[in-house]
TrEMBL record:
<protein>
    <submittedName>
        <fullName>SPT17 protein</fullName>
    </submittedName>
</protein>
Length: 242
């Protein structure tokens, strides 16, 4: 009796079958509605992605058309996209007609004072350094050795430049210009002052005759040097008999 009563009571008041059935039907309807909403959201997202891809491709095509605007057809010569063997021009040809040529970007000229170091020590003006250094801490000891004063070392390091007369003199001085003129004349003039006298004008210059080379003045024969003698002797040219 208790078992049957407990079963009846639980099925009627705790786990009601009809109420559970209604709840499950409501859940199924809600699930179908949510699924339909999610499907619409997915479709709209896909359409947006497709539109973005199409816009990106259109922008790339327009950029390529602006970049290759020089391939546009003219009245005299047809372009590569407007072949005479085609019935109608290529869509790229129509895009080239409607687009403007791509202009070159102007380079940004950086200011010469952008990276200038105003505090950098120059040769004209020595940097301002502290002659009297602050006192060292109490626990610090003076290093042993023949060390000079820090202010004296800094003055020697950053002392002004004392250029010599050659360095201080301007490049465009009259002396340098005269030297450059002399150098140009020396380079322009011939190296050898003695002119070569050809055979056609041999009779004109009797005082200055052509001196043939000592090595090539003989006939073109095999030299006997090394087989018969090792040093040629000319007795007619001797000053003394010895």
């Amino acid at each position: 009796i208790q078992k049957r009563w407990r079963g009846y009571y639980v099925r009627k008041y705790i786990h009601n079958f009809y109420a559970l059935k209604k709840y499950l039907q409501a859940v199924s309807v809600n699930n179908a509605f949510v699924r339909s909403e999610l499907q619409e959201y997915i479709e709209t997202k896909e359409n947006e992605e497709k539109m973005k891809d199409l816009e990106k491709k259109e922008k790339e095509k327009k950029y390529q058309a602006r970049k290759m605007h020089y391939l546009l057809s003219t009245e005299q010569i047809a372009g590569i996209y407007n072949s005479p063997f085609r019935k109608s021009p290529d869509p790229m040809e129509l895009l080239l007609r409607n687009s403007k040529p791509l202009s070159h970007r102007r380079k940004q000229v950086k200011s010469p004072f952008a990276y200038e170091l105003y505090d950098w020590p120059t040769c004209k003006k020595p940097p301002a350094f502290v002659a009297e250094l602050p006192l060292p801490p109490i626990g610090r000891q003076k290093p042993q050795g023949p060390f000079r004063n820090t202010a004296e070392v800094l003055w020697q390091r950053y002392k002004p430049l004392e250029p010599t007369l050659r360095v201080a003199e301007s490049i465009n001085s009259p002396l340098e210009k005269a030297r450059e003129g002399i150098k140009r004349e020396e380079w322009r003039n011939p190296i050898h002052d003695n002119e070569f006298l050809p055979f056609s004008s041999y009779h004109k210059y009797e005082s200055e005759k052509y001196e043939p080379s000592l090595c090539k003045s003989g006939k073109y024969v095999r030299e006997a040097y090394g087989t018969k003698h090792f040093r040629e002797v000319y007795p007619k040219k001797w000053i003394a008999d010895k």
